[in-house]
Amino acid sequence: MMIDVRSPQTAEEWKAYYQLRYEVLREPWNQPPGSEVLPDDQTDIIHVAAYDTDGITLGVARLHTNADSRGQVRCVAVSKTAQGKGVGKKLMAHLETLAQRMGVTEIILEARENAVPFYQSLGYDVTQTSYLLFNEIQHYTMLKRLA
User: What's 33's DSSP letter?
Assistant: First the structure.
């Protein structure tokens, strides 16, 4: 499967970006439309999406930098039909490359319990148990040092 990872460019691509975030990260827990848009989404954040050859949005993610050359990845979502096909790996590799270019030396993220093995396969380590989202989704803080 050919996958192109880049920032959304058009209004339609942005709409699809947020729609996928909603469908994967909010709707299954009965959260209202609009809850997928975070208050800081319009600040200095890099948003990326994975597209197939037909321009269909397969996955989305975002990266921002924190103090001390640390980046944080948030809102990683892959469509149900694209899961297990390397989309998440391509999104993360793209964000890690961008982070390194920006001088980031480590990335943290808050992984849902079911996603911990995926991030571990990419070299992330659990550093602590984090928060419980919607009173049912356990999250774990994970860290990867970039080469």
Answer: T
Q: Which sign does the torsion angle of CA 30, 90, 101, 8 carry? A: negative
Which structure tokens are listed for 110?
A: 């808050």
2-38 per-position pLDDT tens digit: 899 999 999 999 999 999 999 999 999 899 999 999 9
Decide if 109 contacts 66 (C-beta within 8 A). no
Residue 140 contacts by C-beta under 8 Å, 6 or more apart in sequence?
A: 110, 111, 113, 116, 126, 127, 128, 129, 130
Closest to 10 (Cα-Cα) out of 57, 77, 74: 57
Task: Give pLDDT, residue 80.
Answer: 94
Three-point CA angle 115, 87, 1, nearest 5°: 145
Is the distance from CB of 59 to CB of 78 less than 8 angstroms?
Answer: yes
Nearest Cα to 8, choosing from 76, 40, 56? 56
Burial of 103 by CB count in 10 Å (0-12 exposed, 13-18 middle, 19+ buried)?
Answer: exposed
Other beta carbons within 10 angstroms of residue 87's beta carbon come to: 26
Helix (H, G, I), strand (E, B) or coil at 60: strand
